[in-house]
Amino acid sequence: MHQQMAQVMRSFGAGLFVGAGTYEQIQDNLDLERWFRLPKSHERRIHGHRHAGIRIVLEGATLVPALDAHVAHPEPFTADDLLPFRAAREPSCQTEALHRRKTMRKARSTKKRPMLLADLERQYRESPTL
């Protein structure tokens, strides 16, 4: 057991966020929790719900930088500031995560499960074999 935990701890040696100076201001777990609390509090203010929901998990790759944009840009955004982002697309990993969530929600539903299985079988039959 001790060796297994040592191996787990060794795997975290590089740190949770390894980047080119992007997250170096996060020093400990309290700073990490404060950093993650910012987008959650924003979601709570928008929706008025206590729980921020799974949206941060699924759309976090694009949502967190958008919610944190005011930190680096204190004045209101103008059209010229936003113009470079007009053709931006969400990352494929985020699209795939949303698709997997929809599929899993259908799989949990007893009413939608038979239609989901039939659709998955049809997709499997129509897919080209490798």
Structure description:
The chain is mainly alpha-helical and about 130 residues long. It is built from 7 helices and no strands. The protein has helices at about 1-10, 30-45, 55-65, 70, 80, 90-110, 115-125. Helix 2 (about 30-45) packs across helix 3.
CA distance, first residue to last residue: 42 Å
Shape: extended
Helical/strand content category: mainly alpha
Largest sheet: none
Low-confidence stretches: none
Backbone CA Rg: 21 Å
Mean pLDDT: 77
E-strand count: 0
Sheet-strand content, in percent, reads under 5%
Number of H/I helices: 7
Approximately how much helix is present in the residues? 55-70%
Secondary-structure element sequence? Answer: HHHHHHH
What would you say about this model in short?
The chain has 130 residues and is mainly α.
What labels would you give this structure?
extended; 62% helix; mainly alpha; 130 residues; 7 helices
Task: Record the SSE blueprint.
Elements: H1 2-11, H2 29-47, H3 55-67, H4 69-72, H5 79-82, H6 92-108, H7 113-126
